[in-house]
Specification:
475 residues; Aspartate Aminotransferase, domain 2; four-stranded mixed β-sheet; globular
């Protein structure tokens, strides 16, 4: 038994430990200030390693779109090349050359007709790629001959309310009015007719999404292109399309080749995608490509020395590691077209299997089934008195599964859904384990006799956008 003095000492140490880490020698290391002295590499490693043990298991993270597994050879390559600075084209000319090859490979996947000279670049994820695509549209809008002179000329961008948060950032940072096309109950993709009605002489572009974060669905780019052709022919506003293909850009070419969404369409001027989602590379790398050089304003292009010549470049970020670009090239070489097709088809097969099994559960109704990108979501057929999908998400965390529940965007915000993102490391065996865990937790939740805190909170009127923003951030 501790004496009073010992108890007081223990309490003080507990309070102090909240501001300190304890190394292997029992010494306190400040958490929020740089230590006065150095420590052995092994000790520093062990501290950080142990802290990270509290993170979730990446393989069981069915919330994130981001790649959570690569082959040992890919990891080795990334470790060997993490010191290469992507911006230093003259110091690392072969890395710059490989970036150029990747741009051309991706442009070819998206039906570009350029002959090994496609215009585009790597970025820090698809968010920077969206920013660059949006900037190009704004600059080209400024160049239009038929801009009105009797208005304030405030540009606007049209997108569905299922947008990812980068588009809200873009519009805010670059002083653009964002015109949201609201989702409707039972229809969660872009309403093309409503989008066209929002267009005017100050519209810089329309952004359809190939793989909506909330549901995994594709917007109908072909229909949008056709309606925009009619509008542009009538008005001569020449409004372009930028396709946000963050997820679908590396899925559709391989398993849905018949779908018309890319540079085959007249008004698709630029496309962005994430290499670290279904491009199968660790974060963070993205890509943006333009159909023709004319669609990228020269004011946004900077020239750098490259192998005794000039190389055009554009980016918002500057220094960043080149190993992610090299890892992307590794995946292209390693998998080839057939390999990517097998990986993406298997992911979709697992998603369709999971969604079919969940649709058989009496409590749930599928919203989407994973037939676009390998992402699907479901909702409750009827509201339960004692629990909600938020409770099911919490219960699944017991087994390590991260399966988020969230509200849909404005206009359908009363609808709560749960979503699964299937990636290539998710096997059929893991899918069965997940289904078994869902079944176990449903039995527990249905046996409850009193409302849970989550159920009580979920029944309150929605007064803020927290859940919606969380989903938009959660790519």
């Amino acid at each position: 038994m501790l004496h009073k003095k010992d108890k007081k000492s223990t309490a003080q140490n507990t309070i102090k430990s909240s501001k300190f880490l304890i190394d292997e020698d029992g010494q306190g290391v400040p958490k929020y200030k740089i230590p006065e002295k150095s420590m052995p590499a092994k000790s520093a490693y062990q501290i950080v390693h142990d802290e990270c043990m509290l993170d979730g298991n990446a393989r069981l993270n069915l919330a994130t779109f981001v790649t959570t597994w690569m082959e040992p050879e890919a990891k080795q390559l990334m470790m060997e090349t993490m010191d290469k600075n992507m911006i230093d084209k003259s110091e690392y000319p072969q890395t710059a050359e490989i970036e150029k090859r990747c741009v051309n490979i991706i442009a070819d996947l998206w039906s570009s007709h350029s002959d090994n000279d496609s215009i585009g670049c790597s970025t820090v994820g698809s968010s920077e790629a969206c920013m660059l695509g949006g900037m190009a549209m704004k600059w080209k809008w400024r160049e239009r001959d038929n801009l009105p002179t009797n208005t304030s000329r405030i540009p606007n961008l049209i997108i569905s309310s299922g947008f990812q948060v980068v588009w809200e950032k873009f519009c805010k940072y670059w002083d653009i009015e964002m015109r949201e096309v609201p989702m409707e109950d039972g229809k969660y993709t872009l309403d093309v007719e409503a989008a066209i009605e929002m267009c005017d002489e100050n519209t810089i572009g329309i952004v359809p999404i190939m793989g909506i974060t909330y549901t995994g669905e594709y917007d109908n780019v072909k229909l949008l292109n056709d309606k925009l052709e009619e509008y542009n022919s009538r008005t001569e506003h020449n409004i372009p399309i930028h396709v946000d293909a963050a997820s679908g850009g590396f899925v559709t070419p391989f398993i849905q080749p018949e779908l018309e969404w890319d540079f085959k369409l007249k008004w698709v001027h630029s496309i962005s995608a994430s290499g670290h989602k279904y491009g199968l590379v660790y974060p963070g790398v993205g890509w943006v490509v333009w159909k023709e050089e004319d669609y990228l304003p020269k004011d946004l292009i900077f020239s750098v020395d490259y192998l005794g010549g000039e190389m055009p470049t554009m980016a918002i970020n500057f220094s960043r590691p080149g190993n992610q670009v090299l890892a992307q090239y590794y995946q292209f070489l390693r998998l080839g077209f057939d390999g990517y097709k097998k990986v993406q088809q298997r992911s979709q097969d697992v998603a369709m299997y999971l969604s079919s099994k969940i649709s058989e559960m009496d409590l749930f109704t599928l919203v989407t089934d994973g037939s676009d990108i390998p992402v699907f979501c479901w909702t409750m057929k009827e509201m339960q008195d004692n629990w909600t999908l938020y409770d099911l998400a919490d219960r699944l965390l017991i087994n390590g599964w991260q399966v988020p529940a969230y509200t849909m965007p404005e206009n359908v915000q009363d609808m709560v859904v749960q979503r699964i993102v299937v990636k290539h490391e998710m096997s059929f065996d893991m899918a069965d384990m997940l289904l078994n865990n869902i079944g176990e937790h449903l039995k527990y939740l249905q046996a409850l006799t009193a409302p849970t805190p989550s159920a009580i909170e979920a029944h309150k009127p929605k007064t803020d956008k927290t859940a919606v923003q969380a989903c938009r951030f959660h790519h």
